[in-house]
């Protein structure tokens, strides 16, 4: 017997049902959507933290790189003005 992560148990008849089910297919009672939304939110919460970490980390990295580049522009302005000779 495999226990699928995408299932839960009906609080009324204790039968295994789909985790997104709004009505139990065994006892046909309405199921509280609380369990569904809680599970969804806990995943979204974790994903949001990971995404935020990646975005903040990436932004900080890009900002640091940009400031380093900008320092080069300010200290060596002639480098950018020198035209590149196309290969003959
Ligand atoms: Zn049921």
Radius of gyration over alpha carbons?
Answer: 28 Å
Mean pLDDT across all amino acids: 81
Low-pLDDT stretches: none
Secondary structure tally: strands: 2
Helix content: 40-55%
Shape: rod-shaped
Query: What compounds sit in this structure?
Result: zinc ion
Q: What is the rounded distance between the termini?
A: 74 Å
Can you describe this structure?
The protein is mainly alpha-helical. It has two domains: 1-32, no CATH class; 34-77. Helix content is 53%, strand content 7%. The chain is built from two helices and two strands, in the order ββαα. A two-stranded antiparallel ribbon has the order 1-2. The radius of gyration is 28 Å and the shape is rod-shaped. The termini are far apart. The model has no long low-confidence stretch (mean pLDDT 81). The site of zinc ion has 8 residues, from loops.
Task: Lay out the secondary structure.
Layout: E1 7-9, E2 16-18, H1 34-75, H2 77-81
Antiparallel strand pairs: 1-2
Bound molecules: zinc ion.
């Amino acid at each position: 017997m495999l226990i699928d992560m995408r299932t839960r148990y009906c609080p009324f008849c204790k039968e295994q049902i789909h985790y997104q089910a709004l009505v139990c297919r065994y006892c046909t009672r309405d199921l509280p959507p609380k369990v569904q939304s809680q599970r969804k939110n806990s995943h979204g919460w974790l994903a949001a933290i990971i995404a935020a970490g990646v975005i903040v980390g990436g932004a900080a990295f890009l900002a640091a790189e940009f400031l380093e580049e900008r320092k080069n522009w300010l200290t060596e302005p002639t480098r950018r003005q020198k035209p590149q000779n196309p290969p003959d």
